[in-house]
Amino acid sequence: MAADRIEGYLTKQGHVFKTWKTRKFVLRTTTAALEYYDDAAQPPTLKGSISLKRGSSMLDAAGETAFVVIDADGTKYPIKALSPDDKARWMAVLNRVIAGGRDFDEIFAIWQPPRASSSHDGALKKGGHWNKAISDALFHKIDTDGSGFIEFQELCAARRPAAATMFERFGVGNP
Length: 175
Description:
The chain is α+β, with helices and mostly antiparallel strands.
């Protein structure tokens, strides 16, 4: 990860066809831009960019994972996070950038997810909570030393071939 950006996956509603698509999002703190990519294409293709400069705003939308980013021109971008925790993290960092924050260390401190716990391992061994465990692994890939994420990724890959395929598709690996 570069020192001026935060990456993750969100689901965005299209402007023309109102379908929802999961995209890789990159928040560039120095330029106050939220870019989204089609990462199924190789190399990933930039689909659009949302300016978070003066005049932009955010709305907390109905639903525990939904929110709306409004750029300075008034264009609305309906977005869904993967979980309520993810929504809170994205909204916190986006609001900070909209408010004029450009200091990456400050924004990254808001972004950092809680350290992985052993509860995921127990859920996998018991055969439960696959969606939460896999989404946590895919979308909370930041880990300060990398060890917790790799162990979890290997556990998923060994336990379910489908999990390994998802890791490859989303380009998740050791940060």
